Amino acid sequence: MTETTMARPARRRATTQATADRILEMNRQLSLTRSVLAATLETATASQLEFMQRWFEAELASREQSRRLRLRKQAAFPADKTLDGYDWSNLAMPAHSVYVEAQFERIDTAPDTPGTGDEGPDSPADPDRNDPAGAQPGSTTTN
Predict the structure, then answer these.
(1) Smallest Cα–Cα separation from 27: which of 37, 14, 15?
(2) What are the tens digits of pLDDT across the range 47-67?
(3) Each residue of 65-105: pLDDT tens digit?
(4) Do residues 115 and 126 touch, judged by C-beta distance below 8 A?
(5) Own/partner pairs for 129-134, CB < 8 Å, 24+ apart?
(6) Which of 8, 27, 49, 65 is the most exposed place for a label (fewest CB within 10 A)?
(7) In whole angstroms, how far apart are CA 20 and each of 63, 101, 108?
């Protein structure tokens, strides 16, 4: 008998042997003693093999689910929050926000004003400073 397959008695059917092989493969993931399991599988009936297969599959599924829950918890994802069911009846607009919105509206409709930084109306960068008639289209000024 090799480590990956068990002895095949002549009386065993192919499906029974396939089930036993599947159980041995699942055992690798379950960390059970392989030699003890192989000895048990050699004497097990077909219904016992089916039972063991269902048992191992359920155990593997349970471990996978536990693993996923544990990893999700370790990842510390933020809680899934929605606004469904929120009580909106006590919601009122604060007075300050109305004032701020009014200020923004006034600023948006105000006319454009010249800059008051380094480049004021008397700055050397002002093209109209040396041209009393103002900048005319097509005219060039030299400083």
Answers:
(1) 37
(2) 999 998 998 899 999 999 999
(3) 999 999 988 988 777 788 888 887 887 766 666 555 555 55
(4) no
(5) none
(6) 65
(7) 21, 75, 79
Token pair recorded at residue 78: 């933020």
What is the pTM for the complete model shown? 0.39
Give the 3-state secondary structure of residue 91: coil
Question: Residues in the chain, how many?
Answer: 143
Gyration radius of the chain's alpha carbons: 42
Other Cβ atoms less than 10 A from the Cβ of 6: the count is: 20
* CB atoms inside a 10 Å sphere around CB 24: 19
| Alpha helix segments (H runs only) across the chain | 14-30, 34-43, 46-75, 95-109
Confidence of residue 3 (pLDDT cuts 50, 70, 90): very low
Cβ proximity of 37 and 27 under 8 Å? yes
d(CA 38, CA 33): 9
What is the spatial distance between Cα 73 and Cα 78, in angstroms, rounded to a whole number?
Answer: 10
